[in-house]
Amino acid sequence: MIDRKDLLKQYEAHVDQEGLFIKTLDQLYQADAYFETQITDFLTPDLMIIIEQIAAYHTEVTVHKHGVFTDAERQKLFLVPAFAESPLATDYMALLEVRYNQKFNQLAHRDALGALMSLGVKRTKIGDIVPFEGGFQIVVEYGLKEYFLHSVDQIGRAGVSIKSIPFDHAIEKVTQVKHVQGTVQSLRVDGVIALAYNCSRNETKQLLESGRVKINHLLHTKTDTLLKVNDLISVRGYGRFTVNEILGTTKKDRIRIVLALVSK
Prior knowledge:
Layout: H1 4-10, H2 20-34, E1 38-43, H3 45-58, E2 62-66, E3 75-80, E4 93-100, H4 109-117, E5 126-132, E6 135-141, H5 145-151, E7 154-155, E8 158-165, E9 177-184, H6 189-197, H7 201-209, E10 213-215, E11 218-219, E12 232-235, E13 239-249, E14 255-262
Antiparallel strand pairs: 1-3, 2-3, 4-6, 4-8, 5-6, 7-8, 9-14, 10-11, 10-12, 12-13, 13-14
Helix pairs in contact: 6-7
């Protein structure tokens, strides 16, 4: 059984001003205590991980993730009590496709998100936005589908057309990766970030201590945290990267590593 007070204390650092952590925790409690399936908002990866951990250790609730796109970053959690069946994702989210004339306009992810949020819609009601040549595919709260279909006819200065499409028409997300190879004294996170973004250890220390660094989607503030292969490091304002390979040591006992940097 969930001890709400104890969990709020344990995860105090993750309590956000919008109240999303508390709202989702209460939904998990509702699913566990009253056997009522709950559908969350679109959550960030760190919050999904935390809720999955709490569900696994403190409840008998099964957690299903749905974000339409393969490896979607923002997803809904379906919190399903024991012996209950998971609802259909198509009842709770919709996939929209937006197209515009690329000859006269160039739109970015932030333009599409800004256009939707300018209608008074919260970020938690919008999933991933995936661009393609001449448009975007956007996952949204199902209840807002018709509103967007009838309200969005322009993004920036570009006139757009928008329609609802089936989930199996979702495109694959394309990620641009740059590989950086170098040496570090150790696999401490501050030194590895310094290599990734060519900054000083003092700068990386400030990034960590100011809460701008996540490792595998969870906030980390300690400079001496050790990394390993496949760890994902996100640095707000810089981007994210993975520890791709550890190639051994040099004659001076420095560690040779390869990082895979993902474009912002």
